[in-house]
Design goal:
CATH architecture of the largest domain: 2-Layer Sandwich
Largest sheet: 5 strands, parallel
Radius of gyration: 20 Å
CATH class of the largest domain: Alpha Beta
Structural class: alpha+beta
Helix content: 25-40%
CATH superfamily of the largest domain: ATP-grasp fold, B domain
Number of strands: 22
Shape: globular
Number of domains: 4
Strand order of the largest sheet: 3-2-1-4-5
Length: 428
């Protein structure tokens, strides 16, 4: 098969790494890709925002499948354009991708499907938001309705913080059009779980559960980020728990979207809080998660390309994703100043040395080739990922890899996967 992968981050590097292992793969192309992906695929300088250019590239390359990584082109309708051109694509239509593109839409789907989630109010004025905050029992979470590059969620510990978050979205317009409407949501307490499932519009098959770390600092301190690391599996989340989540969350949502004429084909990511009353959804993504993918795919056996192609073709029935035993720990190495003002252009060293270690793979997330070699091009620079027969081994290997990385002023969390108790997060 000739495959085009869309995207340029750590998630896409992990996807390229998994796709390259498929016996079905003939050629792998990526747009725009990154230096890590470039070791596995032929790169094309087409940005993810150029939907027409990506469609034209796929046609010119005569690809058999396009795998779309990021959310923005999905919500923007890239898969619809590809389908109209007769090109198979892994990822949902724009209508189905609204499950991530609009939190209000996701809530309406969950309400219709009977999916457990936090209580919420949808507000498009400051006065309505303040009234919702006043009526809430306890602390709240303020969420921009639309896509905000992972920065539109504020977990509030006081009424003052909630009002400030509302002002940032509705008055200061910090999130642009994505923040013109906000959700005031009940703050849930309990350990977090990310469960991703492959869907073909009807059938749903789970991948390995994972848990990411949103806060920038050890012990879940500091501001939220796009994710500072991830582990898989998740302590306490066994096959029975996965089956319960699929029955209560993924399948009802897939059925409801199909009922609405927007069948979901792709990866449906459910971010959940395991509350005292059972699992409740805090968010949906319409694609592979980042950094969850970097911890899940190293534990996914079998042929991932075959599964993605079956998703696109609507014939997942009878399939399942193999999950390898053992554990995976992925640690993000971030640039100086992340998440507020990441510094770019710093030289990167030590990647090859890290990958010489047993069980270690380094996924490029925010890298570019500069005049003097590899350099930083984003806030989250690398995902140093390691597998092992148990968490202790995987964690030791991952941090040994991190120790080999050389980026001036870089930082990382030192507690990814330390213990099951310490990985139990509150709503993030």
């Amino acid at each position: 098969m000739r495959v085009l992968l869309v995207g340029s981050g750590g998630r896409e590097h992990a996807l390229a790494w998994a796709l390259a292992r498929s016996p079905l793969l003939g050629e792998l192309h990526a747009a725009p890709g990154n230096p890590g992906i470039g070791t596995l695929a032929r790169l094309h300088a087409v940005p993810v925002s150029d939907l027409e250019g990506l469609t034209r590239l796929a046609a010119d390359l005569a690809v058999d499948l396009v795998v779309v990584g990021p959310e923005a082109p999905l919500v923007g309708g890239l898969v619809d354009r590809l389908s109209a051109a007769g090109i198979a694509a892994f990822g949902p239509s724009a209508a189905a991708a609204q499950i991530e593109g609009s939190k209000a839409f996701a809530k309406s789907v969950m309400d219709a499907a009977g999916v457990p989630t936090a209580r919420f109010s949808i507000c498009d004025t400051v006065s309505a938001a303040h009234a919702a905050i006043a009526e809430a029992e306890g602390d709240v979470v303020v969420k921009a309705d639309g896509l905000a590059a992972g920065k539109g969620v504020v977990v509030c510990s006081s009424t003052r913080e909630a009002h400030e978050a509302v002002a940032a979205a509705l008055v200061d317009e910090r999130f642009g059009a994505a923040g013109r409407r906000v959700l005031i949501e009940e703050r849930l307490e309990g350990p977090e779980v990310s469960l991703l499932a492959l869907c073909d519009g009807e059938h749903v098959i789970p991948l390995a559960p994972a848990r990411d770390y949103k806060r920038v600092g050890d012990g879940d301190r500091g501001p939220n980020t796009g994710g500072m690391g991830c582990i898989s599996p998740v302590p306490g989340v066994d096959e029975d728990v996965v089956s319960e989540i699929l029955a209560r969350v993924h399948r009802p949502v897939v059925n409801e979207l199909a009922r609405r004429g927007a069948p979901f084909r792709g990866c449906l990511y459910a971010g959940l809080i395991m509350t005292a009353d059972g699992p409740k959804v805090i968010e949906f993504n319409a694609r592979f998660g980042d950094p969850e993918t970097q911890a899940i795919l190293p534990r996914t056996g079998g042929d991932i390309l075959a599964l993605l192609a079956r998703c696109a073709g609507g014939n997942l029935g009878g399939c399942e994703a193999e999950v390898d035993e053992g554990a995976c720990v992925s640690v993000v190495v971030a640039s100086r100043g992340y998440p507020d003002a990441p510094e770019l252009g710093d030289p990167i060293g030590g990647v090859d040395e890290a990958e010489e270690l047993e069980g270690v793979t380094v996924f490029h997330a925010g890298t570019a080739m500069g005049a003097s070699g590899l350099e930083t091009s984003g806030g989250r620079v690398l995902n140093v990922t390691a597998v092992g027969p148990d968490f202790d081994t995987a964690r030791r290997r991952a941090y040994a890899g991190v120790d080999r990385i050389r980026i001036a002023g870089s930082h990382h969390r030192s507690d990814i996967g330390r213990t099951a108790r310490e990985t139990e997060h509150v709503h993030a």
